[in-house]
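Q: Two folds, back to back.
A: First:
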Amino acid sequence: MEEKRIAILIDAENVSYKNATQIIDTMAAKGTIVVKTIVADWTKITGAKKGTSGRSYQIEGWRKEANKHSMTATQAFSYVSGKNTSDIQLTIIAMKCLFEKPFINTFCLVSNDSDFTRLTQELRENNKEVIGMGDRNKAIQEFVNAFSEFIYLGESMDDSEKEELSQNNGIDSLNNDISKKDIPNSKPVKARKQQAKRTPKNKSIIPDEQLKTLIDIIETAIEDTQGSALYSVIASKMKKQYSDFVPENYECKNTSALITKILPAIPQYVEHRESIPNNPNGYIMMLKRKNI
């Protein structure tokens, strides 16, 4: 298998700086990171502008993370109030990497901005793997499905901005205006994850639409092989339709663990393991219909 040589491109005004370590560690586990570029209007953290909004603190946070992880920071001036140019700048950098660094075979685009959909399509049309990273509650499904693979980040911009504002503008003054109990989804991300773990026993961890597709794939594979659906086949076909069907998004280490986690929602199937000939330590995982 060809080694992955990766270019990481981050839209700093669109995702929380608290995800920096997750981004770098996840991609480092997949291959060799060649390019680490982060784009923002860095003037937002200078002079009188500092302290006027939570987004300014986000960019300040990214400045520190960029130094820590040795990222190349690129300036994208905002010529019109309320409109940034980071998306154009990031697109230019991606196209320069595509044509000037042909040895890069994997792009990681970190953003929630669906304007990058066409860029993602263009890179894939040029035979590049494109991995997306963004917030689960902000990245729309059409954008997610444009990628070869999409990984959800642990911290959202909303959570980070609220925390930074409370720390830097004074908790008392903030509490006079808003209270956390009045803000939807204001629970810390870790608390929401713990709540998600308390999913009813037979409730699927994946969306209903994906669950229906999963069952169709399993049934087709069982018919084709006269009895079994290999995990490798299930994962490959699911990922072709849903780029976010990856173990990392469900706190699983591998595909086997992910399918095992989904099994309570599809009780008509059972897990089956078969040994690999001439390999006493190897085995193949598959699903079969449960005998009733």
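A: Second:
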Amino acid sequence: MNREHISNLSSALRQVSISQDPQQAQQQSTANSNAQLQHLESSFGNQSQQTQSRITHFFKNQPEEGFTLFSHRSAPNGFKVAIVLSELGLEYNTIFLDFNAGEQRAPEFVSINPNARVPALIDHSNDNLSIWESGAIILYLSVLYGLQTISEQSQIMSWVFFQTSGHAPMIGQALHFRYFHTQQVPSAVQRYTDEVRRVYGVVEMALAERREALIMELDTENAAAYSAGTTPLSQSKFFDYPVWLVGERISIADLAFVPWNNVVDRIGIDIKQEFPEVYKWTKNMMRRPAVVRALRGEQ
């Protein structure tokens, strides 16, 4: 992947040194945790006239149309929603919450997201309807704009649930135990990294099957040679042609994976070498102008 395109999400994780040895990582994690705790205690002690004024002011003066996305600069799930909004060409504004100031616990925000986490979305054109959890948000947008048939929708929902329950949480846990946990737990790092690899194996197989079907359909001139095994599929002119998880066009089933694929190298997984179809799929998505804008935080 071309790292030059990335963005707020990558820069938020830039402070993490992949080459740190375990003892240094533990010391840094402990020091960071203590500093954050002291800062939080100080913040909540004084708090938060400024925080309350910013969040309160927004909720008292909500726009009449468009969308407001509540996110955080290091939250892949927030960028997931931004990517879908951007792909749809929708007008939206992002409020990046300040966790150190406790903005995620502001009563007004908790009223729209009882989990007090990001992302959350307000649809101002629909009576300020609020939706929380990234999977629910992108499914809402997908249904709202009728992006697929009923049969496609069921398949898309399967992939979205798979991404939100199996893909993102496993990468998140691997990142936590690798860089942020107060003690080194190698077995936890291994367990979550192995599970991420298993998940990518599922996606790799699905994309490979889609590619084989596409090549056999479009490259009819050489289909017999491919079937006989005398010519590898990699010789087809359609070998790098974009394929998607559901149907013939990109959908939220694909886009949901983008921001997490963008940080998976931080847990020692090289998708280019280990999962070539996932790599090509991700590269095709990362080159899309709307995806680039969303990852850069442009609206």
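Q: And?
A: Residues 1-7, 12-22 have pLDDT under 50 and may be disordered.
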